[in-house]
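Researcher: We're teaching a course module on how sequence relates to structure. For the next exercise, students receive a sequence and then see the predicted structure as tokens, so they can try to spot secondary structure elements on their own. Here is the exercise chain.
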Amino acid sequence: MGKQIKHLRTFTVLQILILMLSAMFLVFRSVSQSADEHVWYVKDTIDPSLEEVKWREEGVIDEAPPWIADGTWLDVYKRESLVGSKDIFVSMYERFNWSLVRDMYGFQFVTFNDFAQYLIDNPLWWLKEIWEIDTEWYGVSANTTGINYSYNAYDFEAQLWTYFHITRIPEYFVGSERLSNWLVGFDLTSISIGNLGVYEFYEDSNIKGVHYDLYFKAPANILTQHGDNFTLTIAVSPAYIGQTLEMQQVIDINMPANTEIKEMSPFNLSLPRGNTGTFVISKEDQYPVAFTVISGAPSKPLNQIVWETASVWLFTPGGWAAMVSVTVILYTAFRGRRIWGRSRLYHRMYNSMVTIYDLYSSDILKFHQEMANVSSSVFKLLIEDKITDEQFEKLLIRRDDLVKRVQGEPPRPQP
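Model: And here is the predicted structure for the students to work with:
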């Protein structure tokens, strides 16, 4: 009997692998066909309990924002993290064309250094005037806002790092409808948004488009229990009921462990698999009144559940659409995080060179020793593909300039 079960499991796994290989071509063909369409791909993963909910939404908008498409900004990366019950730490990295930004906003600064000094003296000005952040309403203080920058006069490329704290959490999340701007269509009334236990947000914008990753944990009453059965209901905001959007969305709802999906509504959008209920919403699908999932004690053997799950995902258009969305999102997420990591490393190396100059400019021997160590690290980062060729060249230019300053020579001209 044990051998039969083992052979059955092996046969089931082989069948799934064959189906996955045959489906990969369909998935990647769909991805390539969708490349020229401007679609908002969204993946929601919802883990409810009787007291709270853990919710992650990851999305890709494969169209650059207009202020990047026109060449004014090149990249903008933002990170937000709840570090205290009344404190969200935000870091932003921007790369933009200083000449275009200056002309667009009619800045009267004579040089970029004048502009940079004004930012340091008035750190909230950029947040309010350019990014329209209501610093007073969100409790952002100039005393806890930091500014760092670099500038290449040859191609007018400026890099700006901004760090600040948001201390009025309900105003930020509820008053500005912050979360509902991303969690489009969902009615979040049953979730205590103003009392988040965990919050993390990443947003990467470049010429390829926008990628974001939102995760939070908060008290909620969206899951109820009746005997052995659990029912989850997430309402749709009235304004979206019956509407269609230029969005392809996958919603995974992970019901309690040791249960299996019994019912899902709306049925035409649902893909049950084990204890996970998945809804797939394509561009032509209308939003329902609510998403409902009911799970209970398993009634099928494991191998049957596994086989049915694979069949639903690999043999149905909904399953293909879900795999396309997940593939696009995962690829874009990897690329965005790699770029963010490179910018952080570049910034760290850049600052370390300036710090060495500040500390040891009067001790030439020590200066050259420390600068040699940093130079070695820079070459290693390039070899390991942790910084770009362009960032590498800029770091070398900065190193050479600082070396010439220590030696009393004029700085190296820009290329």
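Model: If you want an answer key for the exercise: Residues 341-406 form one domain. The chain has twelve helices and 15 strands.
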